[in-house]
Amino acid sequence: DAKTTQPPSMDCAEGRAANLPCNHSTISGNEYVYWYRQIHSQGPQYIIHGLKNNETNEMASLIITEDRKSSTLILPHATLRDTAVYYCIVGKGKYNQGGKLIFGQGTELSVKP
Amino acid sequence: SQTIHQWPATLVQPVGSPLSLECTVEGTSNPNLYWYRQAAGRGLQLLFYSVGIGQISSEVPQNLSASRPQDRQFILSSKKLLLSDSGFYLCAWSVPLWDRGRGTEAFFGQGTRLTVV
Asked: Residues A43, A46, A48, CA angle at the centre, nearest 5°?
């Protein structure tokens, strides 16, 4: 499985954009990039995923570099409720791989007033 | 809509006692099912995953086992708990293999916090 590297922690001012980076230099061509977040003592919550193109949904935007070796999750207007640990995961999309998601240590985002 | 149920929410068990955690999914068929453990803060460790009834893959050697007696039921068990089994256990599901065009987006339950004393 490809590995990801994220900064252990980040701070962001409330109302500003939070840009969370992730390196996945060993990603293979059929692997997706997924982002999840975990608010304290809750189960992880899916945010967004992508393969090659940039993606946007009601929660966030995902920017994937052209070489696919890194990506950035953008929370456009961070709120205090966005304080959580954010996980960047590379998941196999092959039919016979069972769809395992291997979580790393993530980035602890603290949104401050 | 799909929902995932996991219980109990918290559990305190003595060392050497058995364990049974249950997870059920509603609103989908033939899901992939997963058990994760999170010990002392962040970092989720994949314990088991299943792509079908009776099909269990173990990711790490440990004191635990998993079973899938029905399509949407996933059970985590232990015959004798160890202190090191304490942690936050999470069940998750993802779309069936034949819908993989969406990628392996997974949905998690609210977890069981197990304390072995």
From this structure: 160
Q: Is A67 helix (H, G, I), strand (E, B) or coil?
A: coil
A105 contacts on B by Cβ (under 8 Å): 42-43
B107 inside 8 A of chain A by CB = yes
Q: What pLDDT, in 10s, does the model give residues B10-53? A: 999 999 999 999 999 998 888 889 999 998 766 888 899 898 89
Closest residue by Cα to residue B39 from B85, B106, B93, B76: B85
Q: How many CB pairs under 8 A join A and B?
A: 76
Residue B45 and residue A54: Cα distance in Å, rounded? 28
Retrieve residue B54's tokens: 């009776």
Task: Find the radius of gyration of the CA atoms of chain A.
Answer: 14
* pLDDT tens-digit readout, A88-101: 988 765 433 455 67
Rounded Cα distance, A4 and A72, in Å = 12
Provide the 3-class DSSP secondary structure of residue A82: helix
Beta strands, E only, chain A: 9-13, 18-23, 31-38, 45-50, 55-56, 61-64, 70-75, 84-92, 107-112
* Residue A80 predicted with pLDDT over 50: yes
B60-111 confidence digits (pLDDT tens): 777 899 999 999 999 999 999 999 999 999 999 987 655 555 555 788 999 9
Amino acid at B100: R
d(CA B11, CA B114): 5
